[in-house]
Each structure stands twice: as structure tokens, then as C-alpha cells.
Write a structure and sequence with these properties.
alpha+beta; 2 domains; elongated
Amino acid sequence: MAFVTKIHTFRHNSGALCDSLTQMEIIMTRTAWLLSAAIMTSLAACSTVPEPLPEPVIVVPPEPVRTCAPVSTLQRVTVPAETKVQYYSTGIDNGEYGDIESARLKRTIVVKPAQVFYVNSEGREILDICENVVRGNVGPGEGEILEGGG
């Protein structure tokens, strides 16, 4: 950076031309030069100093917690199906000679299917079982015929 000063020319009382820098102009010029040097130095320092890298964070996964119940610790409960016995008779339409009726027949139908569930030692039903087990409605469904029904 070049250092430039301004020289004033003025006439002395004797009428001669004189070149001189005033005291104030010298201070202002030096101040401006020092200020610009300080700014340039601070800007250069900011751009060359890298930011420190953060410490790596190590994440350790927690141990898995077993929330399901092993089937060996549970008791299987089976609620039998509710059934209904129905009696009916069949007939054949024989036109003008009268209907032909056969014997009375019996059939058993399912009203509510059987259910299976598992309970713990306290008698509470457990839904989260570790193994695959049959739960819920089992066997013939509602309305299915168990026996009879020709």
C-alpha cells in the first residue's frame, strides 16, 4: 500500500510560496492508514483460521427390552362354541293331491364360534405373545351346521 500525503502550497507573510503539511493532516493520514491496515489484517485473519471440528457423538443403542410373554408362561383358555339344535321337516309339493311330508329332522348349528385366548398367572388376558399361536375364533363359524342338515 502506498503512503500518499497531500502537500499544501500557501504564501507566507513575506510573500514567498511555502509547501507544508499541517499537523492535523499528518495525524488524519496516519490514522486512516493504520485503520485500513487493521481492517485488512482482521479480515485476513478471519478467512484463514478454520473453525474447530466438533467432537463426534457416539450413539450406543439401548439393549432391546422384551415386552412379549413366552407362551410357556401362559395358560391357554378355550371357550367352547355355543350351538343351537333345530328340528325341521321337509315336504314335497304334490299339487292337488296334498303335500308329501317326510320325517322330522334334527340339525345343530353354531351360534357363537369357539374362542381361544391366553391368560397370565393373575388371570389377565395377554395379547402380546412372543410365539405365533392361534387366538380368537376357532373351529366352525357362526351359522355353520355341525351335524344333521341332510
